[in-house]
Amino acid sequence: MAEEPGRTGAARPATRAETRAESTRELSAAEGPYERREAEGPQELTDLRVLKALAQPRRQQMLQHLTVHGPATSATLARALGLNTGATSYHLRELARYGFVEETRGSGHGRERWWRAVPGDRRFPPRSRQSPEMRLVMDELNRLSYAGDLELFARLQRDPSPDEWADALPHSRGTIRLTLPELHAFFEEYIALLNRYKRSDADTPDGARTVLTRFLAFPAPTADPDNRKESEPS
Predict the structure, then answer these.
(1) In 3-state terms, what secondary structure has residue 60?
(2) I need a labelling partner for 31 at 20 to 30 A (CA). Which of 58, 161, 195, 199 fits?
(3) pLDDT tens across 65-88, in order?
(4) H helices within 55-176, ranges in order?
(5) Rounded Cα distance, 138 and 123, in Å
């Protein structure tokens, strides 16, 4: 599974970053002050502290807001999410501690601190390598992520005044037969496709909008041998 919270990231600057799987800061698993260094390529998040920090519901909401709407201040996030600025400031600091958000140039009014989500190709350990505790955290993180996606989609459908983008909802449900290596290759090709469209704000043409992309593939359940025997004609 891959995540772009700054992208995820998504996102960030909320705007074009959904399609960014670009280099990001590597998170160290060492104890003590969290260390970060520049890293190239996919980044696997294996530190339970990082996963727990990311799986906090309010932080997921804040990352989603930064992904969809772009850089914001703690006051902006507080108004949008119904929180107080003390709470949003605290959660922003925690997200920044682990490299998910960073300060950025804002509107220049006074001493406001503006934040954006840091783009990156962030991935999680496969389920077979997750400890029981990590699995619980990952299950909660997935639940929050999918719930947030569904809410955004539902909000779009409730829009009473759709514009020309209302028809721009590509959707596909398919079934293919793959080996495990082919499935891994399929996923990497998908990430490469996203990277083909990533570009800086300066290179983004007028009329472009943030487009949220989601990829989910999973093997169909295998038949239960006992049930199969019962269904076979005698």
Answers:
(1) helix
(2) 58
(3) 998 888 999 999 999 999 999 999
(4) 57-69, 74-81, 85-97, 132-157
(5) 12
d(CA 129, CA 226): 29
What total number of domains does the chain contain? Answer: 1
Rounded-to-integer distance, Cα 155 and Cα 106, Å: 27
**What predicted TM-score, i.e. pTM, was given to this entire model?**
0.69
* Domain at 100, CATH number: 1.10.10.10
Give the CA distances from residue 55 to residues 5, 49, 51, in Å, rounded to whole numbers and listed in that order.
11, 10, 6
Q: CA nearest 13: which of 103, 144, 148?
A: 103
- Chain segment 162-194, per-residue pLDDT in tens: 778 877 788 888 999 999 999 999 999 999 999
Q: Is residue 91 part of a domain?
A: yes
User: In the structure encoding, which two tokens stand for residue 49, read together?
Assistant: 């502290």
Assess if residue 164 is contained within a domain. no
Q: Which domain holds residue 112?
A: 2-159+174-224
